[in-house]
Design goal:
By secondary structure, this protein is α+β, with helices and mostly antiparallel strands. It is built from 2 helices and 7 strands; from the N terminus they run E-E-E-H-E-E-E-E-H.
Amino acid sequence: MHNPFKIGDTKVYQKLVTAADFARFEDGLVHAVCSTFSLAQAAEWAGRLFVLEMKEEDEEGIGTFLTINHKSPASESETIAIVATLKEVNGHEVICSYEARVDDRLIADGETGQKILKKEKLAKVLAPKIA
């Protein structure tokens, strides 16, 4: 792992809200706005943008935690800008805070954690356990 970043650096991910982002469960559509689940995926991706530049060829990132405070709806065809800010790097763990906004309106905020591991180690950790 190499770290070309300093604490406070930012990465931006733009997400266009589509019908695929709406909140749906087994019983059907809950509401026709961006779901918390979809926001969470976008937030994790925004933090991963740091990981993509930090990991070596034989390494991969894996999520360790995600917090999301969903504050406001985002409607279909709106673009959410997720700004991830590098908060800390502890060994191989990368921690970011983020804010998701549509224009000046805060949609969500929170933190993400990802750990950079050797692909070989990750394969062993994620291998199915035989009972």
